[in-house]
Amino acid sequence: MTPTRRILAAGLASLALHLSPLIPGGCGLDFKLEMPELEFEVTQFETVELDQELKGAQPPEPQPEPEVPPPPMGPDKPPEADGPKPEEKPPEPPKPKPKFGEKTSRVAELGPGSSNFFMLLSAKKVSGLPFADAIVEIMSPLPDFDFIVTGGGFHALKDFNYIVIASPNLRDLTQTFLAVEYRLTQAEVQAGLERAAAAEGEKIEWEVRDGRTMGNPRPIANPDQDDDPRWFVFLDEDVAVYVREEFLPAILAGPDESKGETAGNFVANLTKLKTFAAREPRAGLQLVLKDLRASIKLKSEPPFPIPNNLELMAEASTSPELVIKSEYLDAVDATKMERQWSEDLPAFIDDKVPFYTRFMVRSFYEATEIARDDKSLNLRADFTKDQAKFILEQIAEGARRMLRRTPEQIEAARKQREEMWAARKNGKLTPSEALTPKDGGKAGKPSGEPPLGQNAPPDGGPAPGIPSDAPPIVPPPAPAPAPSP
């Protein structure tokens, strides 16, 4: 069939097909066609890419919904450990510990303002040192030490924590001020003082004033006679003082800062001995000398400048450190002393010091550092155990000569203290348990030991506390024996 005919046949067929629905109505023919009832079922289906299905690939998984990021909050802060915060300063390095003896001693606040000699001994700190006995020998020439410690049967380093001595004149017995912090009970201390008084033919009548127990030793033979106007007074915090009678009203009244340096003020400091000692906790001995130029009477010009004030601190250690601070009237004297120390003293040691001690003295000199600040001159040195013992022995010898005690007196008192300590079984017994006589003997002395009189030197010379220019005295008659307890 030609293309023209195919087109014509297709057109006729299409026309007939479109006109066929109109034929029944137009010809009057009426017929009905019943349509069958049809039911439809809805089925869910997924569309599949034809080419993927044909290739056997799995359909892609549904994509998750994209997460919306939170709004930006600014840059993150660095951790605290990474560095210091901008507003904080880096920590300062720790301050170096102060040197021993760098702080000024306040021992002068523990005694009457009229005093120029002040000493604080931390007995409990030095009692275990190998040269502790040499420290005791420095104090032993003091008449009060012989009277109270030796006479009462006490041990200077075992029965007391602190010992304070102050005086305007150590040679004048009645001017010396004493204070102790004791380890024993008050009753035991009172009993020891009574033994000490009885050994000298005296008796203490205790009385209580304003809550303070106090007593004044007086001769048994003549109670109205009072050669020593000092009283024992018991304060608070286990502290007892031996003080002149004129200080009693101020002590009983208590401290009054508005009146300046009163007895009540310095006695109030005595109840805080631990605080004063803690100012330099390593110190075993603190010594302060004031107004030396006014108190020392010289017949000629001294070979070296004399300081006006002197302060000494000794460490409570087996190898102690020693610090000496001297203050001169002016920088001229301080400069002169510095030059003499550096230039003249070495030659003096080589020429004048005996050969057997020259090496020891020379080692002291070489171990000592010297520093000057205007009119102040400071010496600092570390010593070995043997060097420390040698120095203490020399100081004790100087104290013996200054207080005019003979070597025999010092040795007898030392032997008596050793016997008393042995009688106490090295501290296992109290003084009263070991020394109270059970057979009517004299109190305060070991059995069979004769009393040692402190006021009548065997050579007939001036007694301690008596001016050197006084005429020799005749020893008084033996006191009446103490009444039997």
UniProtKB/TrEMBL annotation:
Composition skew (Basic and acidic residues), residue ranges: 77-106
Domain of life: Bacteria
Biased composition (Pro residues): 59-76, 459-485
Region (Disordered): 51-106, 423-485
Record-given protein name: Uncharacterized protein
Protein species of origin: Nannocystis pusilla
